[in-house]
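hey team, just a heads up i'm posting the complex here instead of the shared drive bc the drive is being weird again. everything in one block, sequence lines first with there labels, then the predicted structure for the whole assembly after. its two chains so it's a bit long, scroll down
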Amino acid sequence: MNVRHADQNEIISIRQLSKTYGEKSALEPFTAVWRKGEVTALLGPNGAGKTTFVSMLLGLLKPTTGEVSVFGMKPGTKPFKERVGALLQEAKPADGLKVREVLELFRSFYPAPMPLKRLLAIAGLEEEASRMATTLSGGQRRRLAFALSMAGDPDFIVLDEPTVAMDVASRDRFWDTMKALAAQGKTVLLTTHHLEEADAVADRIVVLAEGRVIAEGTPDELKSSASHQSILFEAPEGTDDSRWLSIPGVERVERQGSRVRLYSLNTDQVLLDLVNTGIQLRNIEVRHATLEEAFRKLTAASEAQDQGGKRHAAV
Amino acid sequence: MRPSNTVMNMFRSQWKAESLRLLRSPFFLLFSLAMPIGFYFLFVSLNGVDLEMSGTTWGVYFLMSMTAFSLIGTAVSQFGIRLSYERKDGWMRLLRLTPLPVEVYIGSKVLSTLAVNLVVIGILFPLAAVIYGLQLTAAQWLLCAAWLWIGSLPFLALGALLGTVKNADATIGIGNVLLMGMAIVGGLWMPLEQLPGWMQAVGQWLPSHQYAQGAWKVLAGGLPGIEEIVVLLGYGIVFMLASGYLYRRQDAV
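-- predicted structure starts here --
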C-alpha cells in the first residue's frame, strides 16, 4: 500500500501516463497528484499534447503506458462518469431541443444532478432557456456546453479550452464561476493556451510543450524561476557593456542603440549601484517578468534543448 | 436510491428527447409525412382508387407502398443520417462522457422511432380511409399496421449501419440513393410487374419489396408468408451484426 493514500485530499493520481502513435510520441510519461479544491491549468501551445492528455484522463483514449485514478476509480467506468464532468472542444448541441430540454436530458443521467436553475445561472442562459440550442451564438453554445458538463454536479471538472469563442464578459464570469466551484471543494483541470487565463484562475500550472512537461508550479513560482527582472535605461555615448557587467548581480546586458537592458535577480541592489556610478542615465524603468515572458522562455528553452539533442544525435 | 430507477429515468428522458427531435425535424415532416401523403394522393387520383391490383385495389395497395416508403425513409434518413451527424458533431462523444449507457442511448432511439412510426401509420391510414372510403376489415387494418410497424426494425438496423459511415455528409447521399433505389426497384412507386425483367429479378429480393409484400398479401385476404419473414429477418440480422461490429471497431482506440 502506498503511504500517499493516507492523504484524503489527494484525489487524482496520474502515474507515468503516456501516448505514442507508432514512433511518434504524443505525450511523454506524465505523473501528477492533484488535490481536492485545486485548479490546475495545463498550459501549452497547440499540438503540445493537451487534448491527448485530457482524452486519456477521461477514458476516451487508451494510454500507451500508465494509469489514471480519480477518487480511486478508473476512467470510463460508470461511477467515474457520475462524478466527473467534462467540457470538450467542438461539441455541437443536438438539433431539435431547447436549452432547457438539453439540460433536463443531461440531468436525468446523474443520480444527484445540479438544479436546473443553478445550471442556467452558471451558464448565464436564463433568458435563453426556451430557445432552440442550435440557434445560440458561438459563445452561448460554449456556455451551454459548460452547463452540460456540470449537469451531474461533478466533483472533478475537466475543461478543454473552455473559454474559446467566449467574449470578455463571459470569460470573466466563467473564471469567477470556476473560482467559486473550487472554493466549494471541486477540483478543476483546464487546458488553455492563454497565459492570462492560467494566471487568473489556476493554483498550479503545468507547462506542456511537444508532449513534455517542461515546468510545473504555482504561477508565482513559474514567474520567478523562469525569468529575471530587468532594468531599462538610456545611457550616454561611449559607455561600454563591460561597465554594466562589472556591477554585482548583473547577469546579462542587451543593447539597442542607446537603450540598455540589464537582467538581474536583484534589481533593487543593481539600481542603487547604477545610481552610485554617477553616469547620467535617463528614462530608468524596472520591469518585472510577466508569466507570458516566463512561458515564452520556457517553451523556447525546450525547443533549443530539442535542437541541441538532434544535433547531438547527428554527430 | 435504486439504480434501476436511474436507468428507467434516463431511458424515459432520452426517449422523450429523441421523439421530440424527430417530430420537430423539418426533414422528417417533409420526407416521412408530406412526400408519402402527396405522392399517395397524386398516384391514386391518376390511376383511380378502384384499379384492380394483385387481388386488391390500387387505393389500398398504394397506401401500403407509401406507408412502407415513409417508414423506410424515417429509418434510413432520420435514424441513419442523424447517427452519423451526431458522431461528427461530437454529440456521441459528449454522451459517452455521461453515465448514460450506450444500450440505453440506442434503445431509446429505436423505441422513439417506433413510437413516431406508429403516429405516422395513425395519420396515413385514417386519412386515406376517410378520403377514399377504403373498405378493409378491422383485422386487415390492424394486421397491416402491425406488420409495417414491426417490419420497420430491419430498416432501423440498416440505418444504424449507415450511421457508421465516417463522412456524415456522404451519408445523406448514400441514404437517399438507398431509399430511392429500394423504393423504386422494390416496387413501392409502381408495381414490380410493370418494371423491366432484370429489375424484377433484383427487386423481389430487396427488403423493401418483401416489407410491402407482407402488407399487400393481407389486403388480398392472406397473411405475410414465411418468405417475407425470413428475408426481412435475415437482412435485419446482417445489418445488426455489421453495424455492431463496425461500431465496436471504431470505438476501439
